[in-house]
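Much of our argument rests on the idea that a fold can be written as discrete symbols. Part of our work consisted of pairing the sequence of a single chain with a tokenised description of its backbone. We regard such an encoding as a compact summary of how the chain folds. The amino acid sequence and the backbone structure tokens for this protein are reproduced below.
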Amino acid sequence: MNNNLEKFLEKINKGEVCLGAGVLFKDPMISELFCEIGFDFLWICAEHTATDKETILSHIMATKGTNTAPFVRVPGNETFITKPILDMNPAGIIFPFISTPEDAIKAVKSCRYPPEGNRGYGPIRSSNYYIMDKEKYFEKSKNNPWVILQIEHIDAVKNLDKILDVPGIGSIVIGPNDLANSIGLPGDSRSKQVYNLIESVLKKAHNKKIIAGVSIGYDLAELENYKKLVNLGASWFDISFDMVAIKNYSLNIMEKVKKLLK
């Protein structure tokens, strides 16, 4: 069950900040590249892409032998969606749009075996192809993979105290863009109102001793906020993703070449 979750948590427990990159493209070479760069985790997105299960598996497998933990954001909070991905041995499952304690309970249960949950048995990669001792596997599976709840709606902020009290949560992660949308400020994730909500979420998570992350955005203009959020208790950040990295580099180099050719 080596999926680098322990390495990720070891850094956080030392007070270090973990940084990750999002994966939208199909080719697992992008995941290998991000691992070589040294990102602490990958955010493999199956919510906003056409990514299929075989592609998700290839990205998870690309992290083997590295120090990078593979997190998978599933498209919805449904057991039948989560089940096959769990058996691919991700380090974490990111559940989008968790807005109520009932949502949180459902997410946790789908990732844990009975009696704590309702996960079906078929661990394949997560049991090292059934080579791992069964008792050892079941013991490790009580906390692995990490259950990550995405807080990205004003309803989630309002219900946060009850959400954070749900047993079995590994971490929460804030989604500023959809949080802005939910309060009538589409595309304005840098507004003071959104920042105040992020601050309140981080403070509550810190008080409840729940590890918190932020998907802060992919613009260097956001850098000034990182230190503030770390001081408020944020421990990990999704700071880039493949498409934007290529877009930003391509636009930058094209602009420079055009200037040289004038």
About this structure: The radius of gyration is 18 Å.
